[in-house]
Amino acid sequence: MPERALEARPALSRLAVFAYASLVNPASAAETLGRPVDIKALVRLRGWSRGWTVARDNRTTEKTFARPDGTIPRYCLGLDISPDSASEGPNGALIELTEAELDRLDLRELRYRRAEVTDAIEPRTAAAAFDAVYAFRARPQHYRPEPPGDAIVVATYPAATEAAFAALGADQLELYRATTPPPPVEVTPAELVTDRIPEGNPRTW
To answer: Domain 15-195 maps to which CATH number in 3.10.310.10, 3.10.490.10, 3.90.190.10, 1.25.40.10?
Structure first.
């Protein structure tokens, strides 16, 4: 199974998160965690695929964006991971963090739930350095395998994600593009018009 069920377990000393989108950018992760962030390893998540399958209700949640013409789209889409037994897996990065910092990421990833994916990390030597590796996948109520109507992707989001992978090297950017489908909806510049965003959470997408 690609995802290990969460269960009661002793306190763990070494934890990591598998970053596969904007968290790959150390500056973005540092803004949330409140400290400098180093990437510990470049890895893949075998048995999973990456896609534009998480939807945020743009009109009712903590942040609302408007198109350049002032209209308010109903949804904003973001990247997500889903089990896919045939997939060699999206690329990404491991970031080491504490249990308290993992809890803080829960607040950043409001529309996602935490899953333990230690056994899916490759190379295995990278996973072996940690007691557990977690990733964030869409909560059922936000998971949309088919894009909903009147949805956009805020242009700063894929731009920041691609820039983060480019900073890891041309090979990592190429692999990101090979393992990520194009956005299935309009990609547009957008202005933040409602802001109830927790401090440290992204404000530009």
So the answer is: 3.10.490.10
